[in-house]
Amino acid sequence: MINGQVSSVRTPACVVTLNGEFVTWETVTVKGQNYYMADTYTIELPLSGNPQFSYDFWATVATGEIKIYMGFPDDITHFTANELTLIFQGGLDTINLSVGQNTVTLTGRDYAYLLIDQKITDSYVMQTASQIATQLAVQNGLTPVVTPTTTPVGQYTYNEFNLFPNAITEWDLLTYLAQLEVFNLYVIRKELHFEPFPDPKIPPYVVPVQLEDLVYPFPRVNVTNMNFGRTLTLASDVDVTVQSFSMLTGGLITKTATSSHVGQGVKGQKQKFVYSRPNLTPAQAAIQAQQMAHEITQWEKKLNIELPADVTLTKNTPVKINGTGTEWDQIYYIDDITRTLSADPSEGFSMSLQMKNHSQLVKVTVT
């Protein structure tokens, strides 16, 4: 039973292609990562099962596109990739050939690697963050999915990206601009997304938990393992201060976001963080402080789950725990989602989630 619905047993399937050619695989692992990180994969292939790829091919191949489809087809004995979900699309980074085991292991990243590996060549001072994101996406053959912004990056002229342009990658620049705009940044398939974070009110992926009682002296939960954790340092109050010096007015703007626990909390020394961001307006500095406070305190609570995999959950979907009757019952946000499928039926199709969030009793105020 998943999310309160009874489902029939289905057999998982996976299709892997390398440069458009179908690959016979032994294990496939896809890791989806949030917060400005590229998704990655690891695939183990039997050499004997892939005669189309010779030793010479692996010794000389210079580039490759990997596509990974996963899902549950109606007929496991006869299906196509179109019946599955395209879980990953990206490049080929490393090849490890094992003569003794007669296998080859491939690893790589999604198409964010195009920007991660490319240094910036312009200062972009006359453009907005969204214009830069659109330009870099197009330059790298990606489709821009970009929310328009209005602040020219020339407002941040005196920062490290203008002082050391040859030392900064395109992904570094977009990450910096996304943080300034309080945006998310990621690549999915061949789309570059530069946009606000998902609405926290979107329907969550619910994991029901029933603790032990008189009838059942053991917890009941539809997962194979679940671990809760807390960082007590962040369970106390937190101050995040953003200071911004204006080159135009010569004035200093200071905004502080205070994350306070309402009711119970750890009564310890308040944690204080100070950041400098040039040329912000008071409103921008307040937004920056509030967002940074949110990001820091999200590490207060951690939740790791191992469970049978599906292909509907994405890294941008919130996960909700219900049923413990404690403060562990709340929304968590995915930091890492890893799916692993083995050709060995005994190992099956598994999924692990690493998640985090602050207590639901936290209130953030800005002064």
What is the topological layout?
Elements: E1 13-18, E2 21-23, E3 27-33, E4 40-46, H1 55-60, E5 65-71, E6 85-91, E7 94-98, E8 103-109, H2 113-116, H3 129-139, E9 143-146, H4 160-163, H5 170-181, E10 183-188, E11 191-196, E12 205-210, E13 220-221, E14 225-230, E15 238-245, E16 252-261, E17 271-276, H6 282-297, E18 301-308, E19 319-322, E20 331-342, E21 349-357, E22 362-366
Parallel strand pairs: 9-11, 12-19, 15-17
Antiparallel strand pairs: 1-2, 1-5, 3-4, 3-20, 4-8, 5-6, 7-8, 10-11, 12-13, 14-18, 15-16, 16-22, 18-21, 19-20, 20-21
Helix pairs in contact: 3-5
What this model shows, in words?
The protein is mainly beta and 367 residues long. Among the domains are: 13-110, Baseplate protein-like domain - beta roll fold (Phage tail proteins - horseshoe like beta roll fold); 114-196, Phage tail protein beta-alpha-beta fold; 232-297. The chain is built from six helices and 22 strands. It has helices at residues 55-60, 113-116, 129-139, 160-163, 170-181, 282-297, and strands spanning 13-18, 21-23, 27-33, 40-46, 65-71, 85-91, 94-98, 103-109, 143-146, 183-188, 191-196, 205-210, 220-221, 225-230, 238-245, 252-261, 271-276, 301-308, 319-322, 331-342, 349-357, 362-366. A hairpin with a 6-residue loop joins β20 (331-342) and β21. The longest helix is centred in the C-terminal third of the chain and has 16 residues, at 282-297. It starts with 12 loop residues before the first strand and ends with a strand. Mean pLDDT is 84; it is low at 1-7.
